[in-house]
Each structure stands twice: as C-alpha cells, then as structure tokens.
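Structure, all two chains, one model.
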Amino acid sequence: MASPAWREAAFGVVASTLGLGLLRSSAALVGPALGAEPIPAAAANPNPNPNPNPNPSPTPPPLPDRALPAPVVSYTIEARLDAAEHRVEGKEHIAFRNASSAPLHELYFHLYLNAFKNEKSAFLHSPFGGGRSSAHGDSWGYIDVKHCTAPELAPGDLWKGRANGSPSEPDDETDVRLPLPRALEPGQSVTLELEFSAKLPTVVLRTGYEDDFHLVGQWFPKLAKLSADGTFAHFPFHAQAEFYADFGDYDVTLDVPAAAVVGATGERVASEPHGERRHDRYVARGVHDFAWTAWPRFRERTARIDGVAVRVLYPPDQDASVDVTLAALEKGLPRGSALYGRYPYPTLTVVHPPERAGEAGGMEYPTLITTGGPWYAPWSGARAIESVTIHELLHQWFYGLVATNEERSPFLDEGLTSYAELRTLDVGWGPGSAFHGFGLELSATSLGRAFAAERAEDLPVSSPAADFPSFRVLGALVYSRTATILETLARVYGRERFEAALGAYARRYRFEHPTPQDFTAAMGAGLGDDARRTLVEALDARGRVNFVVHELASTQVRPPAGIFDRADGRETVAAPSAPGTRHRGRAVVYRHGSLELPVSIDLVDRRGNRRREQWDGHGPFHVLEWESTEAPAYVVVDPEHRVTLDDNLLDNAASIPGASAGTPRVLERATYFGALALSVLGP
Amino acid sequence: MKHRVLAVGLDFALRAGAGLVLASPLVAAVASTGITRFPEGDRLLFEPGGLMLVEVARTLWSAVVPLIQAELVMGLVLALGLVVPYAVLLVALSRREPRTLSDLFGTAMTRVPPLVALQGLTLLAQSAALLALATFAAGLREALVGATSRRADLAFVAVLALGGLVVLGLGALRDLSSAACVEETLGSPAALRRGVAALLRAPGAVLSGFGAALVAASACVGVGALLTGALDVGRPGAFRVALVLVLHLAVLLGRSVCRALWLQRALGLVEPKAAAD
C-alpha cells in the first residue's frame, strides 16, 4: 500500500495530466477564434542572379499602350435595389455586334445568380467544400428574365425559345442558349431589350448580402464571350471557375435607398435624390463586367494615386486597415502601370466588406476590387491586407485588361497575378513581405514556393478550373505553382528580361483575349526557346525538377603506385607512406524530373573557400571532379536559390563525414524556449 | 546564505537542463532534414525571408503533431521533476535554514510528494479555468460580432486576459501553499488551506510580491528578446551564437533569482507569526 506522501505525489501526476489535456482543449478554442489561418507566401533571395544565357538579346523597349477597344457588347442597365428583400429589379439594353467571321444563329447568356438557386446547379454540386467558399449561403439566390426582345430581328419575346446551354448539366440554369429568329451576319449589330429580377443570396464568394450590406456581382443577364470563329465560350458556373466576357461599355443607373453608400465599376457621372431614394449613374468604357456595392454604414476615404482617383469604402472599425490598403496601392498601382501598361481608367474603387460578409473580400472586377482582413491585421505582423489588395489590384491587368478565359485557363489570370503579387510584395516590403514579427521575417515567395512544391504532380497547372478536384489543389497549382514557375524563370534567365517579356505580353494583348499558347510564345520571344520549352513543360505536362547531390568523396592525391613497364625496364613503385598534400574530390549531382534548368554548383573546402561551376541542366546527372590543396567539405547546388521550383531544397547539398555544420542555433533557441515553456507547466 | 545561492543555482541549472532535454527531439528532427549538409548549417534557418526555414517546416509538417504530443508529455514529466529544485529552493529559503547539504536535500525530498500534489492540482485548476473562460470568450465573441468586430474581439481578448490573471493567481496560491507546506511541514490539503488563508489575509502583499517578481522576470525576457534580435544569428559569426547563448542563460538565471525573491516573500506571508498578526 502506498504511503500518504506518495499518494499525494500520484495525485499530483494525475492532476497534471488532466490539466494538460484541458490546456490543449483551450488552445483549440482560442486558435480559431483568433482567426489562426495559414498565411500565404515566401522568400526573396537577396543574391543577385547573373544571367546564365551567354548571349542575351537586348531587352526591347516596351510597346505603346493600346487605346480603349471597340465595344463588342455594351450594356445600359437601370437597376433598383430593394434592400429589405435583397432583390434587384432591372431593365437591360444590350448593344451587340457580331465581331466574328461567321453568321450567328444563337446567342448564349450567363445567368450566374442561378448558381445559388438550388442544389442541382453545377456550382452547388461541384466540390464545394473544397471550393473557394466555406458555405453556400443561408438563403437562395436566383435571377429570372421576364422577357427578351430584339425588334430588329423579330417581334415578340425571344426568351420563350431559350434552352439549356450546357446539356451535360441538365439541371443547371446558369448557361442559357437563345436561338435567334434569323442569322446575325458578321459585322451586323443587334439591340436586345431585357427585363429581369434578381434575388441575391447571403454572401457567397463574390456576391450577396449580409444584413444591409450588399455586394452585387454577376447579377445581370450577360452575354457569353464570342470567339472569332462564331462560337461562344459558354459554360455552367462552377464553384472553382470564374468568368469570361467581351469588352464593351457599361452605362448603369442604380436606384438605391438614399442612405446607401454606393461603390461601383466605372465613374459616377450623376447622383440625384428621389425622395427616400437616390439615382446614381455610373459609366465604364472598355471593360467586361460591372459590379457594385451598397451599404449605409460604409465610411469613405479618397486619394489620388498615380493619376487615378482611388476611393476606399470600409467598415467603421477599419481606419487603420485603410492606411495599409492605401500604402499598398501606392506601391502597386505605379508598379503595375510601369511593368504591364498604364492603368487606363480614371477611377479605382476598393471595398473592404464588413466582418460577417468577409467572404465578399478578395475579388476583382473592372475598376472595383474587394479586399479584407480583421481590424487588428495592421498590427498582427502578417501582410494579409497588403497581399489581398495587391493581388486584386494586379488583376486589373491579368483579367481586366488581358482578359483571358478564367474558366478554361485559370492560371493565365490567377497565376500571372500571383507572380506579380509576390514580386510586388517582395520588392515593396522586403524579406518580411508575408510576415514580420517575433524576430521572424517570412517572404511571400518562400511561402508560395512551399505551397507549390506540395502538389507538383497532381495535375497540369494549365488545366481548366472545373478539372481540379478541390480548391486546395487549384490554389497550390494555379496560384502558387504558376507564380513559382515564373519566379524561377525570372531568376534563371534574368529579372529584367523576364519582366520585359511579361510586360510585352501584357501590352500586346491589352484589351484582347489571349490563349495559353499566346502567353508561352510571348515569353519565348523574350526569354528564348529553352525558357519557352521549360514553361510549356511546367504548365502543361506536370514538369518538375529536383536537384540532388550524391556521392561526394575526397581522397588525398599521391603518386601512382604499382608495376610500370618503362622504356628502360619494369619498375615497381611502392605506395608512399606519407599522404600527399593535395586532395581530389568527386561529386555527382542528379537532376530528377523533366525540367532542364541551368544551375550553379559551389564546391566549398574546409576553410570556406568556394569554387563555382555551371551546369546547363541537360542530362540526368553531372559529375564534378576537382583537385586542390584544401580538402573539399561541401557541394551545394543552386546556392542562390534561383530554381525556386526545385521540389526539395534540402537535398541540394552534401558534406563529407565530419564536416557537418550542426544545429547550434536551433539547439540554443529550442533549449531557451523549452526552459521558458516549463515555467508554464511547472512550478 | 551559501545554501540559498546553491539552491538558486540548482534551480537555474536544472531548468536549463530540462529545457535542453525538451529541445532534443525538435533539434534531432531539424538535423534529420539535411540542413546540416549545407556549409552555413542551421544559420540558413535564420536568414531573412525564411526560404529554408519554410522548407524545413514543410519537410517536418507531417511529424509536427506527433512531435508536439511527445513534447507535451515530456514537458509534463520534466515539469513535475522540477518540483525537486523547487523544494530545495523553498527549504533553503525557509526560516529554519538547513545547516548541511544533506539536511537541505533530505528535508527537500520529504516535501516533494505534497509539492507534486499541489503542482498537479494547480495545473488542473489553471487548465480548467482557462478552458471555461476560453469557451465563454469564444461564445461572447460570436454573440457580439456584427458588421464590425472590434468590440467583439476586444471582449474576447479581455476575457482571455482575465483567464491569464486567474492562471497567475492560481500560480501565486500554489507558491503560498508550497511555502506553507515547507515551512510548517504540512500535507498538501493543510498547506492549501494555509495558502488560501494567507492570500485572503494579505492580498495586497501577495499581489505586490508576486507581481513584482512577474514584472521583473518578464522584463528579463523582453530585454533578452530585444538583444537577441540585435545580435541576429542569421548573420555569419559563431560569436553571435555564443553571445545569444550567454544572454539566454542570463535571462533564465534572472528568472530564477526573481522566483527566489518571491518565494522568500511567500514564506514570510505564511509564517504563523504573520497569521497571528
């Protein structure tokens, strides 16, 4: 039987164990409440990158910026917001020109709000749990078109003849085919008159309401993008996909409650009170979408940045966040204009949604972006507001001006934007561009690289949005891996040439709709054919690369021993008893994966002296042999981390036995924090 | 006096040693990633931008949860083991200061079981309080959050801060009870009653004594953090690592001294004379 003293000790042990369990439960409660989430991105390597291309072509001067495009489809809309019922009643006048080379016998409309109509929509039965959203809203959303007429073609309501535009999704109502009573010849125009009633869902992704806050996106009947061959790029609205449309002019009059503070695509050209309501008219030219927001509690801050009238709408407790947002725009807007062509619009509206409508944050529309982040974000050390603001801002180029098909090739907008975002963050905020605090600096590129490496082989980066099995995979490949591929090319082939090539692509296809082939061709024109092949392999064929150092060995050099037949007879040379003074080393560096990228290899001796060799990256391995007076100690591949696409950076070095550098810093720091932590658990 | 210095030194040394033991699995895991094969070694983990730090974290990610679980169990065992130097410190500081080392350690060892009981009870109570307040705080935040969240977040933090105060208060009560346990050779229930009585009798004295020690110890940690940042072990130079090691040991020693000063005060607060007063 235990003595009373040891019974006490046993009680203490049991109580401590129980206490530890409770402590872990507390941590589980506190973490989510504090919004503990993984942060995005990673590290700019400060080392300069000498260009491995021995004969670089001179960087061409940037192309001049193009003027606004001739409209293919223009919308004039009168919309009335019923803020209590969260409905928008609208009249829509569409001026459409057949800009293709073929006669059109039908039109395709996107009714995106029907994605939230029922659980048979493509949106709601797609892998939603892993999609961009965490919920599908508490109330349904939908859009009803009351009628559609085209007096120039035929009298009567054309809408009665509509059909499902995507037979593969028979229950989906977001893609509608509308037969025309007679063909619309190439170059011919038609005017369509529609009346519609839209019911907004509670906020899901980029649209909806929360209490009296409304973000009204994808809200009107919208024509699908017309291709040059007369077909339409139409598709059901998928949870992981975004949009695609022709350029045109928008003239939208919003009838809203008088107290509502409104932000919208384009420039406000009129605002007239009408009793308890107000009519605000917005005009936007050369854009391909129109979104707006209304909330009586918005506060407003304005600024002029790089000649653009910037307007920030934000909740009352977000003053500090607005400072951060404007600082980010101060860096991002001039940089975007300088690299990718001047921002062509007079206004930019930035919307910071209220807390409960946070899912509305982080979205791009022409001249209107939404940002987000908690009120304490400016003091948290994480660059969350900067990151999302810069990302959505740069979409003005890679989505807004270079209007690629977001459903078919999401990497062209999200991937290029992510590269530009991470680079802007690294340039603007240095090595702490993702997080800085507690003595730690994490760069956006470091984190992005890690996400990219996780899903290297899942499926091609250039896959259509709906092909990705989850948004987690899409995020890692489309966003992070594209950015890392481009960052690697920039570091390997030279930043200046890379940015010039990307800028030339952005200017060449400004107000156009380039394909992935247009993009890779443009980059190849700027960087060379090796770079183009690497890019295509990495984007289309799950190309990957991992440099691995194996077989590092060193021996002391001595004169050859043995039996030698010489001119004057046979000679037996004995092995010398004393070791030689020189050392011979050998190492083998392997390249795993299909991407061939040139790298530097450093040989480091025990005194820390370095000797550098270049490997063009061709072939499966490269043998290094050398001789020197100092014993070799280490071999390091890609010491300046140019190939951020490398699957595993930790196998890029090898050391001879006894040369291990050890982990004194980790040991010291972990011991110290361990001792401090024991003060929490112990007496 | 000699015994007191020895006891403080022992507390410091064993705490640092326990920290080293606690750190070992993590250090071994980091070393296994291959970072030591680079000529810069683990200096790469402290470089600005954190490229290699993130890579190591990514490599170890799947092992993080088991590693934390193992560390928690090990930490619990070590924390209970630290009751021994705690007992030695209390005996050395008590009014019947031992004459010999064997007297010091012999007396201390007889007090270890009730001190373990008090420590276990304290950890249990602290954890329960923290769990209850964290649950309340999360619910309160959810109820208060609306179009804006500042008020809800501040309420959340305020409740958590209250939880922190409760945890600290329970720690002070443990020290008072432990002091009574050593000073009066009491079992844990009686010592706890004596500790509660001392707290109720002189809350101001407890607050000032415990608070001053806490503030001083926290200041040591804060200054240490600032100087560590300035030394920046991410830059080349083995001397930086050595200086930071010395600095952190100095911080731990400072904490042990602060603890000793507070425990001496606690011993005075639970004296029968103080109770009679």
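Residues 47 and 640 of chain A are 6 Å apart (CA to CA).
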